[in-house]
Design a protein that fits this description.
Elements lengths: L1 H15 L9 E6 L6 H10 L3 E8 L4 H8 L6 E6 L4 H5 L4 E4 L15 H18 L4 E4 L4 H14 L8 E3 L2 H15 L10 E3 L6 E3 L12 H12 L1 H9 L7 H19 L4 E8 L7 E9 L2 E5 L7 H31 L10
Parallel strand pairs: 1-2, 1-4, 2-3, 4-5, 5-6
Antiparallel strand pairs: 7-8, 9-10, 10-11
Helix pairs in contact: 2-10, 5-6, 5-11, 6-11, 7-8, 7-10
């Protein structure tokens, strides 16, 4: 009897104290999980904490990969979903949907040339999320990030569930590369380098802020110019080196796992988690912009203000804003065209 009373009391205390009920584990769905990024990303996420279900979706058969990953000696389960009609079940009740589905670049291509093929992925995933997990965080790896995120935002908006704090374009690879190249140059561990990378995720829209580098960057203007260019063209460096066999996959999986870990730590209620990402933003004249964000229980908790920049950085921001503005417009136009053409996606709500 005493034992029962004690148990009742404990459960009442738990109910009365919401912080005790704070969630520690989540369902994460990876769309495009069978691909060059999807597979190593799934492995890295299996190796980390905080995921009660890792739902793997792809157009190709996922059973083998899911079974393989389910033998990793970590808690949580792995589920597999294959084919377009299994997208909704895959993301159903997910806390976080990460999208690594879509075509990578071939040598000679620009990222925006992928929109014709990959824009459809954004529309389909945003539609499935609208139906099956409208409160989930949605993070896109798929290129062209600068257009894909505005396209997805448009679909979510039309479906009446858009929350700009929950939609992200993952630009962490730009930060990871900056940390590595700067660490090597300064002969320190990349783990000890911190630098915001703002703007977007293509060419000149990728802007590492050397003026904000910690520790202070010791290189003259010529070095900064050269390293900025290398960071902006690092994706192309990999595309060329892979010579027709795709673009960055392993470093992207590393960067993606870092970003997912930060999102999950935010969801758990940890404070002070800051990452750069490409999101709907009011910091500049561009409707979508990458900048440092504090993450929290509802996605973006707070936009960090843009720092005072060097005059060269200010000029670079002025040059990149029209590009991201144009990219956002193309993404939105793409989504609206798809929605108009598709009778299945809430056509009556189109203005
Ligand atoms: N944000 C970033 O920093 C980076 C983005 N990327 C982008 O990530 C994307 C994926 O790259 P990879 O993994 O190398 O390509 P991949 O071709 O190796 O894999 C893509 C996977 O997506 C699947 N897929 C295609 N359409 C799908 C759909 N509608 N639903 C579910 N799955 C679908 C394919 O079956 C394939 O398994 C590309 O668009 C690439 O440009 C790549 C590197 C960095
Ligand atoms: O360059 C690409 O096409 C893939 C990518 O976004 C990157 O590596 O940054």
């Amino acid at each position: 009897m005493l034992l029962l009373d004690g148990l009742k009391l404990l459960s009442n205390i738990a109910l009365a104290a919401p912080w005790r009920l704070s969630r520690r584990t989540f369902k994460v769905a990876i769309v495009g999980a069978g691909g060059g990024i999807g597979q190593p990303l799934s492995l890295l996420l299996r190796s980390g904490p905080g995921i009660k279900e890792l739902a793997l979706h792809d157009l190709v058969e996922m059973k083998g990969i899911a079974t393989d990953l389910s033998h990793v000696s970590k808690s949580g389960m792995v589920t597999s979903f294959s084919g377009e009609n299994m997208l909704e079940p895959a993301v159903s009740c997910a806390d976080l949907v990460v999208v690594a589905a879509g075509m990578p670049r071939l040598p000679g291509m620009q990222r925006d040339q992928l929109m014709a093929a990959n824009g459809q992925v954004a529309v389909k995933v945003a539609t499935a999320v609208s139906v099956a997990c409208p409160e989930a965080l949605l993070a896109f790896i798929t290129n062209p990030v600068n257009m894909i995120v505005p396209a997805a935002a448009e679909v979510l908006k039309v479906n009446g569930i858009y929350d700009p704090c929950r939609l992200f374009g993952i630009t962490t690879l730009d930060v990871v590369r900056s940390e590595k190249f700067i660490g090597d140059f300064m002969k320190i561990s990349p783990d000890n380098v911190k630098i915001p990378v703002i703007g977007g995720h293509a060419g000149i829209t990728i802007l590492p802020l050397f003026s904000q580098c910690q520790p202070e960057f010791h290189g003259d203007k010529a070095v900064i110019k050269e390293m900025t260019h290398r960071i902006q063209e690092a994706g192309t460096e990999v595309v060329k080196a892979k010579a027709g066999k795709g673009s960055a996959t392993l470093s992207m999986a590393f960067a993606g796992a870092r970003f997912v870990d930060s999102l999950l730590r935010g969801l758990k209620g940890e404070k002070g988690i800051v990452e750069c990402a490409y999101v709907a933003s009011e910091l500049t004249d561009a409707p979508f912009f990458a900048s440092p964000l504090e993450l929290g229980k509802d996605g973006i908790e707070r936009f960090l203000p843009l720092p005072t920049m060097s005059s060269t950085e200010e000029e670079a921001v002025a040059k990149l804003i029209p590009v991201v503005q144009e990219n956002a417009k193309e993404g939105i136009d793409f989504a609206r065209k798809c929605l108009e053409e598709s009778m299945e996606v809430f056509p009556s709500s189109l203005p």
